[in-house]
Amino acid sequence: MSVAAVEEMRGRLGRVGAVLMTPIAPADEWRRAARRVERAGYGAIWTNEAIGGREVFTQLGVMLAATERIVLGSAVANLWARHPATMQGAASVLADAHPGRLALGLGVSIAAAVEQSGQKWASPLNRMREYLDGMDASAGAAPVPDVPFPRLLAALGPKMQGLARDRADGALPAMMPVAHTRAARERLGRDKLLIVMQMAILETDPEKARAAARQMQVLSLPGSPYVRSLKELGFPDEALADGASDEVVDACFAWGDDTAIGKRVQDHLDAGADHVSIAVLAPDPASSADLYERLAPTLL
């Protein structure tokens, strides 16, 4: 994308988005939740995928068709789930059908998930570089949308962020402290998008909030890229052991009342994020929409 196109996408995304990242649910529940998030005033809805299950482009298509103006983004489309030509083609078709309303975030997942799917894990940086080559090589066979869609990399470390700067339109890091956002902006420069995903736990009791954060296990997975990035930020090994210290949990997860969540969002924006997408803990799309409606007056 050109610098002008990146700036235009900044305007479409707005400052704050919402993540619909819940268990399998009927399509009508996703449609209703997406419409509620749109009516609440958020700039974007982001959704994820594993390898199998809710296929992300199908999911995005369902919500794009159910809404009118909100941007829909993958956070992230798993590159191990499809051939690079399929990734390019699927994104191009949706962007052609819904001009200006698609953002493509793609990522390399983690070794355990890839090997569980029957594939062989490879160097994330090399795999991503080769995958982007494949997408670029197949672009001529895909539709050319009137409005280009941004290509964003789930980039936590400096090398992947460098690739996001050189081969994509920006980066999409998740569950990292505000200091990480500041460092990412410095690496990317001003002409790239920086979309920050922030988990929010609406719980004012510190012990309950931190217990909920640790139950997600993102800081205790073997070979966790989050732990590796936190070490690069200067957190010592002892602070990252046994589910992480309270300090680490508090840095990665926003918890508390609406005002506390709003402050964390503003901190990321002040550190250089273009857009902060909030992810809430909820059992179904309707419950997620309830929380986003509650947070809207504070966040928007």
Automatic annotation (TrEMBL):
Pfam families: Bac_luciferase
Occurrences of domain Luciferase-like (ranges): 16-275
SUPFAM superfamilies with a match to the protein in the record: Bacterial luciferase-like
Membrane-spanning intervals of the chain: none
Gene3D superfamilies, sorted: Luciferase-like domain
Name the record gives this protein: TIGR03620 family F420-dependent LLM class oxidoreductase
Phylogenetic lineage: Bacteria, Bacillati, Actinomycetota, Actinomycetes, Streptosporangiales
